[in-house]
Write a structure and sequence with these properties.
Layout lengths: L1 H16 L7 H16 L4 H25 L2 H15 L2 H16 L3 H8 L12 H48 L6 H4 L1 H25 L3 H11 L8 H12 L2 E3 L2 E3 L2 E3 L3 E3 L6 H33 L2
Antiparallel strand pairs: 1-4, 2-3
Helix pairs in contact: 1-4, 1-12, 2-3, 2-7, 3-4, 3-7, 4-7, 5-6, 5-7, 5-12, 6-7, 7-9, 7-11, 7-12, 9-10, 9-11, 9-12, 10-11
């Protein structure tokens, strides 16, 4: 029951405070990861495994040790704080809503600038539909990466699980690229993130299918379109999400001056400001469902323990 209550407390903290405006711990971790990369880099997978281990495992082990030494109330408080720092639910809305507002106001330049803070593609050449698609895709994918994945690993392994997941996800964003520099060195970061996201991504896709009101469409898109996507986890999340929303996402996108082909996802209408808002609502509904399930399971197991 304490785990479910910690999840509820952390989500409420994130909704109230959002991400720390100054000195977010992940910024410090990013500096640490760069320092390790400078000293451990080599064009080999072994070097990447070593660098990942040096960056992540000591911090997870320290957290485990600290929690064991603390009284139960202090350990619970640390767990709440750790999950709060691992979540990015409010931040997701703070980034996506300005895109929707600018599109509703027919201010394409403002929409491009706003979506540029969410995605890595060349936003200056995007039209209204492509801006809406980029923002909607980001909400769906980051709904898993910044919300459901952290909740899942917290439920499974507590605060160390949430920390392990968030740090791994951060290293994947830093090193997990198929470029000459990171093809081998970043292999471990990318594969570990894939493994840690395998179950959460599919639970997130199922959550979208349930919350979107178009379960059969979401399931059909998940089954037929997700295997065509490069990422084994983003594919199910975005395909199911697009199907649940009844919009068409994916398709070619510009990166570094080149339009790269991507499979199409979803079915139905072109994306718009409304699809961004609906995607945010779907994530919110999913969070509420996850919290209700966690609280119900907590009550069941708590009652069983006292039977």
């Amino acid at each position: 029951m304490s785990t479910a209550l910690a999840m509820l407390a952390a989500v409420l903290l994130d909704a109230w405070l959002g991400e720390p405006r100054r000195a977010h711990p992940l910024i410090g971790f990013g500096h640490l990861a760069k320092w390790i990369e400078q000293r451990a880099y080599a064009d080999s997978r072994v070097a990447g495994v070593l660098a990942w281990s040096l960056a992540v495992l000591p911090l997870v082990m320290v957290l485990c040790s600290v929690q064991r030494l603390m009284p139960s109330w202090a350990s619970w408080s640390i767990a709440v704080a750790m999950l709060y720092l691992a979540l990015g639910w409010r931040s997701l809305g703070e980034h996506a809503r300005p895109v929707a507002t600018a599109l509703e106001d027919d201010d394409l330049d403002a929409a491009r600038r706003a979506v540029g803070r969410m995605v890595s593609r060349d936003t200056a050449v995007l039209n209204h539909r492509q801006v809406a698609a980029a923002a909607t895709e980001s909400v769906l994918e980051n709904g898993n990466d910044a919300v459901f994945g952290a909740l899942f690993w917290f439920a499974v392994l507590g605060a160390p699980g949430a920390l392990l997941y968030r740090l791994s996800n951060t290293l994947d964003a830093m090193w997990g690229y198929r470029t000459p520099r990171y093809e081998n060195f970043g292999w471990a970061a990318a594969r570990i993130d894939d493994v840690l996201n395998f179950l959460p991504a599919r639970l997130a896709a199922l959550t979208y299918a349930i919350c979107g009101g178009r379960f059969s469409a979401a399931w059909r898109c998940w089954r037929t379109q997700a295997p065509q996507w490069d990422s084994p986890n983003a594919g199910p999340v975005m395909a199911a999400g697009a199907g649940a929303l009844g919009v068409r996402l994916g398709g070619p996108a510009p990166y570094h001056g080149v339009w790269e082909p991507r499979p199409e996802l979803g079915e139905g209408d072109p994306p718009s400001a409304a699809s961004i808002v609906c995607a945010l609502r779907m994530v919110l509904d999913g969070v509420l469902i996850w919290l209700m399930v966690a609280l119900l399971l907590g009550l069941v197991f708590h009652g069983g323990a006292h039977a």
